[in-house]
Amino acid sequence: xxxxxxxxxxxxxxxxxxxxxxxxxxxxxxxxxxxxxxxxxxxxxxxxxxxxxxxxxxxxxxxxxxxxxxxxxxxxx
Length: 77
Prior knowledge:
Layout: H1 18-30, H2 36-43, H3 47-57, E1 60-63, E2 66-69
Antiparallel strand pairs: 1-2
């Protein structure tokens, strides 16, 4: 019996990549009403990782069903 992990099939360990960040950003810019699960299903990554990328790397949040930058001025609301 071994205590080490063997090779496993499935998703790669690292999904927060520049490529995925760019893909998510492009998807959101094309359709600001996209849902997290729609993005996750398209890219085959978890909704938690999509949420993390959108909030931490792209600095966006949902506002009235649309993704918007976090730092808006009062006039932009």
